[in-house]
Amino acid sequence: MAKGEIAIKENNCRGCGYCQRFCKPECIVMSEDKLSSLGYILPVVVNPDECTACGICGRMCPHYAIEVYKYVTE
Ligand code: SF4
Ligand code: SF4
User: Fold this and answer.
1) CATH at residue 49
2) Does the pLDDT at position 74 exceed 80?
3) How many folded domains does the chain comprise?
4) Which atom, in ligand 1's list, is nearest to the CA of 26?
């Protein structure tokens, strides 16, 4: 059960792959064919149900391309 979700700002992304490398639950993989308008390979969310909303991907992204939203459970 996902604890949150992420939004990728594709125009900010530079295809470095840090988000994939640091997401422990492997929610993110770098696409093989999806390119941004600037020509960078984009990450895609493949395992949204496993997102723990830890925020690591957003913190590791050098280009501020990922926003992390944590679900409120009350
Ligand atoms: S918030 Fe954490 S679990 Fe969710 S996609 Fe980012 S690194 Fe992965
Ligand atoms: S860490 Fe940021 S710039 Fe690098 S691939 Fe992921 S979203 Fe793109």
Assistant:
1) 3.30.70.20
2) no
3) 1
4) 8
